[in-house]
Amino acid sequence: MASYASSASPQVLVGNIALFGIGALLMRGAGCTINDLWDRNLDKGVERTRSRPLASGALTVPQAVGFLGLQLAGGLAVLTQLNWYSIQLGASSLLFVGTYPLMKRITYWPQFVLGLTFNWGALLGWSAVTGVVDWSVCAPLYASGVLWTLVYDTAYAHQDKSDDALVGIKSTALLFGENTKPVLLAFLLGSCLLAGVAGLGNQQGVGYFSLLLIGTFMLGLKLRTVNFNIAQQGGMYFRYCGYFGWMLFAGALVDYLIWYKDGKKRPLVEVRRQPQTHSELS
Q1: Alpha helices in the chain (DSSP H)
Q2: Which range among 164-168, 183-187, 268-272 shows the weakest confidence by mean pLDDT?
């Protein structure tokens, strides 16, 4: 969306997709490692997680910490390819990455904190292209992502709710209980609405809005048939939720390709820029 708004070249678009793909793989992996370190004793009491390397004893804590160091070093290498504003913005997300695993011990809303963590890229991706965050677009997009995370991670948590209740792990799955479906539908519609507000602010085209509506319809229709009291169906809906993200990405990409094919007519979006590289700052 930032490339579309700023009329960035295909090289910038592809380069940032590759960079953020690698960064997401490394940092989400780091988040999983941190989570498993915090939860290694709790995981022993949950059927689905007791076979994880740390919980089962296949991996020691020092080995896991060493692996985490490699993941964070790789993430830092990716982050330093960006402008200074983005480096500071990206580094600030570590607070969420490090503390998310603790939330399931103190609140029934750990999925909300996970949403704050996982969707930081909505802010960072924009600043990587333009040097600053356009809050009129990024704030609703970020909030949309948080609600989407609440949908898919609540479904994920339903897989373990019986064991979680026994070992003292809190989640939105336990909080919502039998009201999960109407609550998740409200979150899904809210996510669609906020993504639509972001699209309007960015003057997206028919590709974005069409695929946003299709993705929302697909998830809503599937939600009707899910039985969250069957663990496998919670896991199935969790995986199915990925289509919503892919639809949003595809819609933004379609709009960019249409703009590029039509002679690069500049979208009517004012984009404030800052220096993009270290050399521009010197």
Answers
A1: 2-6, 10-38, 53-56, 61-79, 84-92, 94-106, 110-118, 121-130, 135-157, 161-167, 172-176, 180-201, 206-225, 231-240, 242-261, 278-281
A2: 268-272
Give the largest CA-CA distance in the chain: 61
- Using CA atoms, how far residue 4 sits from 24, 35, 126, 203, 256, in Å, is 21, 36, 11, 9, 5
Residue position matching structure tokens 């969420």: 96
Rg over alpha carbons for the chain, rounded to the nearest Å, is: 20
Q: What is the pTM of this model?
A: 0.86
**Whole-number Å distance between alpha carbons of 54 and 50:** 9
Range 47-53, long-range pairs (CB < 8 A, 24+ positions): 47/160, 47/163, 48/159, 48/160, 48/163, 48/231, 49/160
Name the pLDDT band for 53 (thresholds 50, 70, 90): confident
What one-character DSSP code corresponds to residue 44?
G
- Residue 102 pLDDT grade (very low, low, confident, very high; cuts 50, 70, 90): confident
DSSP calls for 49-102 = TTTSHHHHTSS-HHHHHHHHHHHHHHHHHHHTTS-HHHHHHHHHTHHHHHHHHH
Looking at residue 43, what DSSP letter applies? G
Query: In which residue are the tokens 């607070």 written?
Result: 95
49-53, 169-173, 181-185, 191-195: the lowest-pLDDT one: 49-53
Token pair, residue 115, equals: 């949403």
